[in-house]
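step=predict obj=PX domain-containing protein n=472
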Amino acid sequence: MQESSAGSQILIYASLMFQVYIIDVTDGQHRWTVKHRYSDFYDLHEKLTAEKKVDRRLLPPKKILGKNSKSLVERRQKELELYLQTLLQQFPQVTPTPLTNFLHFHLYEINGITAALAEELFHKGEQLLQAGEVFSLRPLQLFSVSQQLRMAKPTCCNGDAKTDLGHILDFTCRLRYLKISGTRGPVGTSNIQEASLPFDLSVFKSLLQIEVTYMNSITVVCCTILILTCFIYVTPQSVLVPEASEFSQWEPEGVESGCPVTAVIPVWRNLTTLDMSHNCISSIDSSVKLMPKVEFLDLSYNQLSSVENLQHLYNLVHVDLSYNNLRVLEAAHTRLGNIKTLNLAGNQLDRLTGLTKLYSLVSLDLSHNQLAQLEEIRNIGSLPCLEKLNLSSNPICIIPDYRTKVLAQFGDRAAEVCLDCNATTEKELDTVEVLKAIQKAKEAKDRMSGNDKKVDSVTLRPTEGLSVSLCS
């Protein structure tokens, strides 16, 4: 049995062709439909008469003659609607389990959803926690739990210990890996928009990782890894600080500001990994200041044309900006800091002048860009820590002896560089040494040529007031 939801209403429509009855259920602002044949009503009634002693005469009898006539279907429709309404009135406090399942309360109604989740965790919760796997919850389930906790009532009202809300609270308190998967559009046959449902994550005390898809926003929680994909809105602020639109000026908690602020927003104190890939993000706003300890940042597969505000993330180590709309990245060291890994694959870069001072960079992916000039590699050839470089699928790759000419730009460090996922070979190093010798000879020749030009340009000019006389 499940606790009955106040205000539930039943309307029934019939499909004459298949004799399928469409039940329209309304619970507050939420509505959904359920389809059943008469045989389903009959099975429900058999269970209720056996378990709850419901009057057997309450269900309209099955009729064979003229069963497809429009008049019979319409009359049967009204009788079945009255039957369900009578059942709900007969059990105003606790709805029998067969009836809640029949009306899909476990899919769309708060009490039914939490009861179903509690029973699932009663049977599998301890096993799931011990396995340490990611557990998936829908926003509608989290919304239902949050609403239940706000109600002043016992955690178990129907007498079935398996559906006690305590099973959910015990599980969420110990869960470490959570995935919240919403839907784009209404849930099932209902009008429920999961992306707009508020819920409280404070019941999760031990989370290390959260993955969220198809949501408008998410509240602050104590986790170290946060994965936000397929969000409806397209700015980090709309996700991380949805209330920002209500304030003219806000600052992160703990930041001293010389200007007056109207709101102080809590920061994500433990968050070290943030994945916001595949979100149609077109700009990086100042809301990233709410995650000061982030080390791993994934903004791939968005619509970024510039990189802003990442200088506020002083702990950044790994940044993924692949498959965006970047055409140029100037003064990257002032925007990214002392990062070690940078993925810029799948953009439209044709120049590398902005990367010259990324002195801590160890790995750089520039594949699938528009790099065509070998001279651009000189901008990164002097980076002292760079060990992995990917230039595949760039126009530069069609240059004869491309690999050795690129490796030569790294001078004495050529042997330390892994180019396009392939380690440098001894043969390539020999060729690099030859290219370096040729380059040095060319530079020496250019210097000598420059000196000769200076000598050729010397002329003798008479000094004013100077006289010269010749004596025999």
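step=describe
The two ends are 136 Å apart (CA to CA).
step=end
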